[in-house]
Queue: 3 jobs
Job 1
Amino acid sequence: MRIPSSAAALLILVRACGFAQQAPLTINQAVQQALDRYPAVLSSLEQVSAAAAGINLARTAYLPRADFLTQVNRATHNNVFGMVLPQAVIPIISGPVLNTNSTASVFGTAVGGLVTWEPFDFGVRKANVNLAASVRDQLNAQVNVTKLQVGTAAADAFLSILASQETVTAATASVDRATVLNQAVEALVNNQLRPGADASRARAELALAQTQLIQTEEAADVARAALAQLLGIQPQIITTQSGPLLQLPTQQQIASFTAGNHPLAIAQQLAIQEVRSREKVLARSYYPRFFLQATAYTRGTGIRADGQSDGVARGLGPNIHDWGLGMTVTFPAFDIASLQARRKIEAYNERTELAHYDQILQDLTGQSERAKATLAGAQRVAQNTPIELDAARVSEQQANARYRSGLGNIVEVAEAERILTQAEIDDALAKLGVWRALLGVAAATGDLQPFLEQTQ
């Protein structure tokens, strides 16, 4: 059966909308998706991988070094007595000094290899490996710091969405009540039972409620955009599943939070360890270095010791073979001044990192105390808002009844409506306020897992 083009287009559109629609997110899913997708976390993980590769690079210092050379040249064969100081400009010519100064040239070839191995090093290679491991560990700790920051931001954005949605619900109810009041007042004014000023006030209260609703919807859109930024998706497709977050957590849930080692403190401890590892490398750098060396090479030249050439092609093939074994010892005697200066720099760096560690501990202590105070205040507010809401509902009902019976005025009704709207918002946000305070406590302790377990 042939499907009409309009029906086919509709089917494609429906399927596209189905693919674009995302299932409602829980707060656990939002946090996990942020950790999986946010570029800052991915960047930190790649830095750890690079540092781990740096450990392997440091370990290659234990391996022997093998260098191979092949060379063909055509050059003059003049040679002179005398010394040339070390430099990288004038090539060295081997062989006896000939009493000639000719521009004639001959071929020369060389093929050889040199294997060098350092049998012992007074611990400098191990110190370099430990330094690379310290860098890796410090970066790995920074990953946990980044994850904590991103996870906290995602959870806070999720709670902001729920809070804005609850505020939108309260603002919508306020618009509905203002609409009913406006209709009732207009009926009374039209029947000349109330002055026209009451109708103007009722319309003003309706417009004010509508403005408040628009503002709360804007706040909801902003909250979705904040979470979408962390998840890397479009804000329009975000829907939330509140779970237990719209009810107050129990005292048992609140008491389950315990302090742990904060990732910031751990990362700073490892930063101190990294500086100390650099100091150990410098402490083991002022030692002689011993190199076992083995070489084998073959050379060819187109000139003889008497200065005679054996032909144009002579020297293209190597014909003299040599080998050798030996040990080379090097000692940078005058590096002691620079090494001492570098060790002094690292000593100052260590003191800086220690001071930074003390600052982090002090800041974390203050953050924890503030989070606990915020939680205690949020709990007290949550206990009080139901009383506020019940009283506001009774007051609103009484004000409406008094107005309809002619005993009250429109100002009393408007004020009662506003108080009821605010009480509804306060009561809805009070429960989320406790959860947000719990999130703050979890972030202060450095572990979001207890908080996320309570939200399942």
Note: The chain has a mean pLDDT of 85.
Job 2
Amino acid sequence: MGPLSGLKVIEFAGLGPVPFCGMILSDLGADVVRVDRKRNTEAYRATCFQLDSRGRRSIALDLKRPEATETCLMLFEKADIVFEGYRPGVMERLGLGPDVALTRNQRLVYGRMTGWGQTGSYAHAAGHDINYIAISGILNAIGPENHPFPPLNLVGDYGGALLLTTGMLSAYLHTCETGEGQVVDTAISDAGAYLATLYYGMHAAGQWIDRRDSNLLDGGAPFYGAFRCADDRWVAIGAIEPKFFAVLLEKLGLREIADRQMDHHHWRETRVLLEETFAQKTQQEWCALLEGTDACFAPVMSFAEAPTHPHNRSRGAFVEIDGIPQPAPTPRFSRTPGGIQGPPPEIGAHTRTILTQWGMTDKQIDALVACGAI
């Protein structure tokens, strides 16, 4: 199933962007084999709730043993793509760096995901999503006026994962044409800045104020934001275009303020008026009035509620597997639809099967078991 059916991928288990990247490739039909650390088999078993680990098979290796290293290199020889998310130098110390890998398989696409990149003054420092987007300019732009606010880890980690996926598939197209593999270096800090390209242009043009809660899309504009309802639930408004703002005001009975929309001097006054207006009805009452109109309206749903929203149901945006609702694969393909290939695997659940399918004999596998490599 899926447009990537037949693609053979090796994923070295990691956090954040790495499993998300593996999930995308699997949902699109690739055969993704996840290499887990054998020492973690008992302490950290994948559970059915680690949904970004869905759809692959797991092989558990003791990567400190030379036999395990050689096993990985054997897998590299038969893979189309390999990707990892360790700090710079870790794969090289394991004997699995890109130079060795590409020597064994010159067609290999070798994806690398780090927080700060393979080079740079921060390259070897620890960090997490909030640190990586801090130097990209994004963190400073998000949140209320008095302090920055982390946008979960959606911007850095998962923005980075999308770019790594795009990069590796682009490199694979090059391989198909030329027979040449290559390294794809993705840094979360780079990805954050890349996602903000539009805003760097707006800033250069004097169309973006470098102050939170002051611009069109950062909560400064009263017609683009979230508003509390009478039942303490929220609705989201995005009536940017004048014709949509006019629809909103018509529904709210506030037509007299239509000419203020882009007047920054009235933004705070307009926001207070909208806050007072939305506080007069419940979320459901606003849904009855505004849903399906051009007011650019939507109720704010929680993770528990989103799978049951009528629009999401009609789109099939969520699926339920083993009683667990989860986002369905996207985008959608008319000829080669993707799909969830299976639940998250337990660490090492497919070690023998994978090694057999990828060319090892039972005798070779038994030898790896005997020496503790698998």
Note: The first strand starts at residue 8 and ends at 12.
Job 3
Amino acid sequence: MKRDMDLIRKILLKIEDIPYPNTSNEFTIQDYHEDQISYHVMLLNEAGLIEAIDFSSHDGLSWIPTRLTWEGHEFIEASRDESRWEKAINIVKEKGGGLVFDVLKGVLIQLMTKAVMG
């Protein structure tokens, strides 16, 4: 399965909207299959952007996010603005060909810094 940065951003934004750590076994994102979501939740957990619980079994992958980490909050702040997100995605694709997370985060931070500093 390919990594989908738009889905990653959507997952992080949805977790941020949960008013307390998620303890349910249900987590959905419109227009995405539960396997895609579980895979990306697992990746976000591995990257240290969220904490998640692995409910996987012989029936398949099942990861449920519980909360954002400090790094997850930092990434969301840098990527919250839709136009900044689109610009960063386009810059990274144009200059680098692929989407490497640390490069994308660096570009987002540079764009945010530029916007704040004028």
Note: The mean pLDDT is 91.
